[in-house]
Structures are given as structure tokens and as C-alpha cells.
Design brief:
The complex is a heterodimer.
Chain A lengths: L2 E3 L9 H10 L1 E7 L10 H20 L4 E6 L9 H10 L9 E8 L5 H17 L2 E5 L6 H13 L9 E3 L7 H6 L3 E5 L8 H11 L4 E4 L11 H11 L4 H16 L16
Parallel strand pairs in A: 1-2, 2-3, 3-4, 4-5, 5-6, 6-7, 7-8
Helix pairs in contact in A: 3-4, 7-8
Chain B lengths: L6 H28 L10 H13 L6 H8 L14
Helix pairs in contact in B: 2-3
Classes of the chains: A alpha/beta, B mainly alpha.
The complex binds zinc ion (ZN).
């Protein structure tokens, strides 16, 4: 079955990972801008990273037949440095007309601090002004519930942001309904340790249905598995779900959400080479 | 969307997996108890949190997973952003 991984940090992965994902049926990925494991020292460090996301990664993905999309921002962790964050936000528009950019992301909160809120709101300003899609990172572990509520509160401060153009990522059992009931899209992140598993993600689908929801691997430089969406497909199959149900969440939903971006162009795998 | 399997199917398919999870929990708690200073650990904040989490497993379901998640979550204050500019 073809699938899309809507959240994976391929700059941290090898070309072998791209190839394994492609062999398992991955036909497209989207890569949000994130924390590199260390704080970057200057706005030029981010500019170089955004060039990697918009120039080099699409080529590397294409070499194995995967279509690469991306999201641009300064992540919540580095948002603690407000001055640098503002320089980065001012530079983001340089990249908003690149063909593989879907919008602003992954923005959000990490430790739910005032500085993170300041920079989150300034990203929202930019996204509202440029009518870009938004991809939201929610905190992990004990910060998640409070952080998700705060994020939704801040989005609601904006009457000019349509929740139907925003995806709230890393939802779990206690936050999935907050996202869906408020009209947002949502992502479930499958992580081998400490976070949601393929079994729990399948449970969530059984509880909330298949509308506006999609799994992702959030594969990065930490313990993570870029093939986690394929694991989810297997778990759903073992439970007796139809291929149509599975395809809806791992393929059709990401496509529907990405299609809301004015730049999104996609060739279905069946039409490749035509 | 509803579940694709009956409760009995799930029980039969997952019984050994769940048994293993319970054993993992039991062995983890034993490990704490075997450590030095185990007599004083019951008052530790994290120990109380774990105990509260275990208590939630005995409640009626479904909804236990969400309750456990909330149990391990920071408090959210409604209206935290009111009066800000
Ligand atoms: Zn991420």
C-alpha cells in the first residue's frame, strides 16, 4: 500500500532510510523545520538549513521516487531566544515561494514558556498575513495537555486563521478530541519509546474515526523509526481493518490537507512516468 | 468508526501481551523495592504519581488511557491569556 509520512526529519536520516521507506510504499513525505539537537548561532544558520530543506532534500528524496515537501519556521525550543527568532521570522518569506514548501511549521510550544508563546504568536501573525498552512508541534509528556490547550487558545485569538488549515501534531488520547472538536487536522506520532505506539494510534482511530487524522513517524536524530507508518499499517491490518480505511488515514488524509496549500503539486504513484 | 474485533477476540489475541506488560510493571516496582533506601521511597513524588496511575487501571473503561495521560499532565488554567495584549 502506498503511504505518505507527513512528519519526518529526513535531514537527520540516511539515503538508505529513504530507500527503505520507498520500498515499503512511501510515496511522499513532508519535513517540518525543527531543532537540530543544538541551538544554531545565527540567522544564516537557519537560512542554510532552509536551503537544505528546499533544494537538497527534494533531490535526495526524488532519487528513490519519493516526493518531498517541507515546512519553514524556527522551532519552539530555539524560540526561547526571542531576538534570533524574530530575525528568522523576518527571513522566512524568502522561502515561501519555493515549490515544495507547504506552509509554516512545526511551530508551537515545548515547555509552555512566555517566550515560546511570544514567538508562536508572531509565527501565527505571519501565517495569517500570508495565508499559509500551519503545522503545530505540541509538547511531549506532562507538558502536552496544558501546551495543547494554550496553543488552541492562542490560535483562537486569530479570527483570520481557519482551523481547517491547521494541523495539530503529536496528539494522544487526552488531546486528540481537543484538536478534532475545534475543527483542526491532527497528527499522531509513532515513537518507539515514551510516546504513542502503532497499537495506541490504531486504538485512537477506532475511538475517533478516520476524518482529519493521520499517523507519522516524526523520525529524527533521536531514537525513532522512519518506517513507523508502515508498522501502523500492519497493526491496522492485523485488526481486520479494510485497505480503504487504512488508505484514508495514511494516504488520502495527508493529500487532502497538503492540497490546501496553493503550491502543492503531486503526481500519484500510478501516474509516474506518464 | 467501531472496533473491528469482538472483546473476546481481543482478549484472546492480546492476553499474553497484556500478561507480559503486567509482569514488566511488577518487576519494575520490585526493582525499586530492592534498591537502597526503599523504606523511604513511598513518599517520593514520582512514586505517588506511579501509584495514582496504577489505581486508575482498576477503574471501569474505556477511557483509562486518557485518564492516565491526564494524571501525568501539568494543570491547565482556563483564561491564562485573558488580559494579555
Ligand atoms: Zn518534528
Amino acid at each position: 500500500m502506498y503511504f505518505i509520512d507527513p512528519h519526518v526529519h529526513m535531514v537527520s536520516r540516511t539515503t538508505d532510510d529513504y530507500e527503505i521507506m520507498a520500498r515499503m510504499g512511501c510515496t511522499a513525505i513532508s519535513e517540518p523545520a525543527f531543532w537540530a539537537g543544538y541551538d544554531r548561532g545565527s540567522v544564516d544558520g537557519f537560512r542554510d538549513y532552509f536551503r537544505q530543506l528546499t533544494e537538497f532534500e527534494p533531490q535526495r528524496a526524488a532519487s528513490v521516487g519519493i516526493q518531498h515537501y517541507t515546512w519553514i519556521c524556527i522551532n519552539a525550543k530555539e524560540a526561547e531566544n526571542v531576538e534570533l527568532s524574530r530575525e528568522v521570522i523576518a527571513m522566512i518569506p524568502e522561502f515561501l515561494d519555493k515549490p515544495n514548501v507547504l506552509g509554516i511549521g512545526e511551530i508551537g510550544l515545548n515547555k509552555n514558556t512566555p517566550n515560546e508563546c511570544t514567538i508562536f504568536r508572531e509565527h501565527l501573525e505571519l501565517a495569517a498575513k500570508t495565508n499559509e498552512l500551519i503545522l503545530i508541534h505540541t509538547p511531549h509528556l506532562w507538558d502536552k495537555y496544558k501546551g495543547t490547550r494554550m496553543i488552541i487558545d492562542m490560535i483562537k485569538e486569530h479570527s483570520d486563521i481557519d482551523p481547517g488549515r491547521v494541523l495539530i501534531d503529536h496528539v494522544e488520547e487526552h488531546t486528540v478530541k481537543l484538536a478534532l472538536d475545534n475543527g483542526f487536522w491532527c497528527g499522531m506520532t509513532l515513537y518507539p519509546t515514551t510516546k504513542c505506539t502503532p497499537a495506541r494510534a490504531s486504538d485512537i482511530i477506532e475511538m475517533v474515526g478516520t476524518e482529519r487524522i493521520m499517523p507519522n513517524s516524526a523520525g529524527d536524530w533521536g531514537p525513532s523509526k522512519p518506517t513507523a507508518v508502515a508498522d501502523f499499517i500492519m497493526e491496522m491490518r492485523k485488526r481486520g481493518n479494510s485497505d480503504a480505511t487504512i488508505k484514508k488515514v495514511v494516504y488520502e488524509n495527508p493529500l487532502s490537507f497538503f492540497s490546501l496549500s496553493k503550491r502543492f503539486e503531486f503526481t500519484p504513484p500510478e501516474q509516474r512516468g506518464e | 468508526m467501531t472496533a473491528t474485533r469482538t472483546s473476546q477476540d481481543i482478549l484472546e489475541q492480546d492476553f499474553l501481551k497484556i500478561r507480559c506488560l503486567i509482569l514488566d510493571l511488577a518487576a519494575s516496582l520490585d526493582r525499586i523495592d530492592r534498591g537502597e533506601g526503599a523504606d523511604h521511597i513511598a513518599d517520593h513524588e514520582q512514586m505517588k504519581l506511579l501509584q495514582g496511575g496504577l489505581d486508575l487501571l482498576k477503574e471501569d473503561g474505556p477511557g483509562r488511557a486518557a485518564k492516565v495521560q491526564l494524571h501525568f499532565s501539568d494543570q491547565y488554567e482556563e483564561g491564562w491569556n485573558e488580559g494579555e495584549d
